[in-house]
Amino acid sequence: MVEINATNLNVFSERNHIIKNLSLTIPANQVTAIIGPNGSGKSTLLKTLSGLMKPHSGKIYIDKQSIDFYSRKQLARKMSFLMQNPEAPGSMTVKELVSFGRFSHQTWFGFNENGQDQIHWAIKQVNLEDKSDHCLSKLSGGQQKRAWIAMALAQNSDVLLLDEPTAFLDIRHQLETLLLLQKLKRDLGKTIVVVLHDIPQVIQFADYLIIIDQGKLIHQSTIQSNLDPQLFEKVFGIQVELKHNPFQGASLTIHGVAETQGS
């Protein structure tokens, strides 16, 4: 089980200060959701945590070891990252795409039997067994998204970083994906970090919540802690009702747009 810590992260894009002196903890063996308004820096933060982007200042630690200690191949065995809108040639099959997730484990002799088993397992988890040999161009947008998720699963890393994994999925496959993440956490001890937009789904399925706005950390806590509805009004401009049930967990209902001063 792997914990991630970030201290005093600053990330710039050209002249824009995207991530601003941000420190946070990603708890081990939990599903952590990162939420925030559009343009708040969620995707940039995820790329930085994955090692894909280097912060201009600050440090990232994986189980108290600096991320700079790892080679690219070692880091790929530790963390898998699925970006928001990945692309691949339409002629590539589902199995070929998913096999890319095994490259950090590949030897001079190719994939071993365990690697092939991992590919088949990953495809099964996203219910694409009957599409394994189909070209990506023949799949729906939602099926393509699930194929990419399978590639991340095939990497068999301790940490999964997923940028909007439910985007373009219908409601059934959204729920199946979120349940799968919970299953990976529960059964395999994975540490999972997701960027999501559906706040009620976040409250229902995540264990830990991180809210950022304008590149700054606004809040981090467990979902089961007594979240303040005014937090969502302040950051998102919405009126919500939060309920905590010791047996069914937390739930959030959106009642409408918050009134602004002078309206």
Automatic annotation (TrEMBL):
Chief location of this protein within or outside the cell: membrane
Gene Ontology, cellular component aspect: plasma membrane
Gene3D superfamilies: P-loop containing nucleotide triphosphate hydrolases
GO terms (BP aspect): iron ion transport
Gene Ontology molecular function terms on file: ATP binding; ATP hydrolysis activity
Domain of life the protein comes from: Bacteria
Location of this chain's protein in the cell: Cell membrane
Record Pfam families: ABC_tran
Protein topology in the membrane: Peripheral membrane protein
Keywords tagged on the record: ATP-binding, Cell membrane, Ion transport, Iron, Iron transport, Membrane, Nucleotide-binding, Transport
UniProt record similarity statement: Belongs to the ABC transporter superfamily.
Protein name as it appears in the record: ABC transporter ATP-binding protein
Naturally occurring in which organism (per UniProt): Legionella sainthelensi
